[in-house]
């Protein structure tokens, strides 16, 4: 059983990106600049944004954090987005989700200039991805594809079961895995909360992508021998034995599933670190696209 180590792979990627930034600077070209908008004080969101800013520093990017209070109006947020759209120094920016309830998430994401949408959520970029045109891929699926490629996981002709149909992970993952690409050419089944015969499907799967947000949902009796397991979930589970009072669990019951898997991503340290690395890769691409 091989661990798909997102921590190590993302560190390798950051070194490669840092080298590219160094070359850009030596050529007298622009330093990539990533901005992030954070609305409110959701603990997990603050942690994620902090990690993104730190990663920017590490690879030599410029970064800007726009920190807005919880009660920020939708109009005010749209003004901030417009300002970033028009700021030539900013190559790409992200709006940290989830947003407070009174703000229309879809309206906000639609307002982002597709050329600066390094999260890959804008319909223009989703459409391009679907048509297999060059574009920004959503960071988490992009990170998973990168892991599969770098570990030479065979995907061609394999049966992939994606559990979860979110626009952020499940849906794009199903599209990318079926395309003609190195980590692709697979036959894909998308399963979700209404799927009747889920265990029957997962037992047939050569590769399982678990992205449904339920802690330790996928258990050893649901996977066949030598399956490849990608665990996208991360949930805080109460655990009195831990100093923090909780532990982090994925959507996969690691102990039972890892005994059967040929490759598996751990939680934490699997898909999570890759997401930030791919966000940086998209920002570098956005900067280079501007010439």
TrEMBL record:
It comes from Aureibaculum marinum. Belongs to the tetrahydrofolate dehydrogenase/cyclohydrolase family. GO terms for molecular function: methenyltetrahydrofolate cyclohydrolase activity; methylenetetrahydrofolate dehydrogenase (NADP+) activity. It comes from the Bacteria. Catalyzes the oxidation of 5,10-methylenetetrahydrofolate to 5,10-methenyltetrahydrofolate and then the hydrolysis of 5,10-methenyltetrahydrofolate to 10-formyltetrahydrofolate. The lineage of its organism: Bacteria, Pseudomonadati, Bacteroidota, Flavobacteriia, Flavobacteriales. This is Bifunctional protein FolD. Pathway: One-carbon metabolism; tetrahydrofolate interconversion. GO terms for cellular component: cytosol. Residues 138-289 form the Tetrahydrofolate dehydrogenase/cyclohydrolase NAD(P)-binding domain. InterPro entries: Aminoacid_DH-like_N_sf, NAD(P)-bd_dom_sf, THF_DH/CycHdrlase, THF_DH/CycHdrlase_cat_dom, THF_DH/CycHdrlase_CS, THF_DH/CycHdrlase_NAD-bd_dom. GO terms for biological process: L-histidine biosynthetic process; methionine biosynthetic process; purine nucleotide biosynthetic process; tetrahydrofolate interconversion. It catalyses: (6R)-5,10-methylene-5,6,7,8-tetrahydrofolate + NADP(+) = (6R)-5,10-methenyltetrahydrofolate + NADPH; (6R)-5,10-methenyltetrahydrofolate + H2O = (6R)-10-formyltetrahydrofolate + H(+). PROSITE patterns: THF_DHG_CYH_2 (PS00767). Its EC number is 1.5.1.5, 3.5.4.9. The gene is folD. Residues 4-119 form the Tetrahydrofolate dehydrogenase/cyclohydrolase catalytic domain. Pfam families: THF_DHG_CYH (PF00763), THF_DHG_CYH_C (PF02882). NADP(+) binds at residues 164-166, 234. Keywords: Amino-acid biosynthesis, Histidine biosynthesis, Hydrolase, Methionine biosynthesis, Multifunctional enzyme, NADP, One-carbon metabolism, Oxidoreductase, Purine biosynthesis. Homodimer.
